[in-house]
Every structure is written in structure tokens, then in C-alpha cells.
Amino acid sequence: MKRRRFFQTAIAIPAGTALLAQQEPSPKPTQQPREMTPPAAPSMEYPKIDGSMPDQAAAPVLHFFSAAQFAALKHLSDMIMPATDKPGALDAQVPEFLDFLIGKSPADRQKVYTAGLDALNKLSMAKEKKPFAELDTAAAAALIDPAMKQPWNYVPPADPLAHFLQQAKADIRTATMNSREYAAAGAADAGGRGGRRQGGVGLYWYSLD
Predict the structure, then answer these.
(1) Which phi-psi region, left, alpha or beta, contains residue 65 (left: φ > 0; alpha: ψ -120 to 50)?
(2) How far apart are CA 72 and CA 122, in angstroms?
(3) The dihedral of CA 136, 137, 140, 142: what is its sign?
(4) 186: CB partners within 8 A, 6+ apart
(5) With helix as H, strand as E and coil as C, how does 16-79 read?
(6) Is 146 inside a domain boundary?
(7) How many domains does the chain have?
(8) Tens digits of per-residue pLDDT, 20-45?
(9) Confidence at 186, pLDDT banded by 50, 70, 90
């Protein structure tokens, strides 16, 4: 009897092992995901920027003339083509246009302007003790009147100031009368029928914005 129980037990052991092997292992408990802390909302505070008035930052950017030369040219432009019922040279930004134009011109034309403006300021300092741009209209007119009255000739005057004034007068008048502002005023005077035109095409230059 004891041997029979032994063999029965020995036969049952492999069978029990096989049954255990066939059983699927119990799944390991899954780890719960960590709770993510949402990122902090970005700050809505914006940096404060101090503003400035347009007039404080609207100084013209010069490309060719010096500050003294440009100031003299600006005063001269206002005298030659002042604002009346139509825009003047300053309204059309002619000094700024000439600063660009002369800067791109041949060297001999550049010399006419620089030598003439320097001579104009030098004469003003000698007679009025101040630069030309600071003279009132009467004093400025008396200063340039002798040179302006020289008769026109195909040969430019030998005097640098007279040569410059003749050239500048023609350039300032042409630039003003062919500006967008002057053309718009002409169109308004004509009741909207069109400004100064030739061959159906507007002949004006755009001021330097």
C-alpha cells in the first residue's frame, strides 16, 4: 500500500506541474499615471514704452548737405516759392528733394550748390552776424538781391554765389511746380477736372515721405 501511494504521488506531481505551467501569470498591477501640474499662465503685463510727439522725432535725415547748408537752402526755397493760394516749396518738400537730387548729381553740379550755400552763409555772417537761415525775409532779400539781379547768360556767372542762386532759383521753381502737392492744388482749382498735365500724363514727382 505504501508503494502504491508513492507511485500515485509521483505520477500526480508532473501533472500538477504542467497544470501550473499552463496557468497565465496574474497581471501586475498597472502604475497609476502621475497627475501633471498644468503650466502657469503667461503674464499679460506688457513693457511700458515712453512715447514721443511726432515733431520731436521728425527731423529730416540729410544725405548730402550739411545742416548749415540745408538750413540755408530751406530758407532760400521758402523765399523763392512761398506758399500762397497754392503750396510753396516747403509744402512740397523741395529742400528734401534737392538734398536727394544733388547728392545723386555729377560732381560739378554738386560743387555749384555746396560752394554757393557756403558763400551765402559766409556773406550773411559777414554782414548780419548770423547764418542765412536765421535772417528775416527783408534782410535775406537784401543780401541776395544784387546777385539775383545779374542778367541771365548762357555762360554761368563767375561768382559762385550768383551762379548758385541762378541755378537754385530754376531748380526750386521747377521742383515746386511739378510736385504732387502743387498738382493736387491745381486739380482742386479746376473743379476736379485734372491738374497740370501734358499729353494726358501727370508730370509730378513724389515728395520724399
Answers:
(1) beta
(2) 11
(3) negative
(4) 86, 195, 196
(5) HHHHHHHCCCCCCCCCCCCCCCCCCCCCCCCCCCCCCCHHHCCCCCCCCCCHHHHHHHHHHHHH
(6) yes
(7) 1
(8) 445 555 555 555 555 556 556 555 55
(9) confident
Residue with cell 498597472: 30
Residue 128 carries which side chain, given as an amino acid letter? E
C-alpha cell at 195: 491738374
Distance of CA 133 to the CA centre of its chain: 26
Which position has the grid cell 532779400? 141
Q: What are phi and psi of 205, to 5 degrees?
A: -100, 155
Closest CA to 74 of 129, 123, 120: 120
Q: Identify which of 153, 146, 68, 143 has the alpha carbon closest to the alpha carbon of residue 113.
A: 68
Which residues on adjacent β-strands are paired with residue 198?
Answer: 201
Is 124 in a helix, a strand, or coil?
Answer: helix
Instruction: For residue 206, give the nearest of 83, 101, 106 by alpha carbon.
Output: 101
Whether 128 and 72 have beta carbons less than 8 Å apart is answered as no
**For 84-106, where are the alpha helices, taking DSSP H only?**
94-103
Residue reference for cell 500538477: 16
Residue 21 in any domain: the answer is no
Which grid coordinates are listed for 25? 501569470
> Could you read off the pLDDT of 143-154 as tens digits, one per residue?
999 887 766 667
Q: Give the residue numbers spanning the domain of 127.
A: 62-194
Asked if the structure places residue 26 within a domain, the reply is no
- What cell does 48 get? 511700458
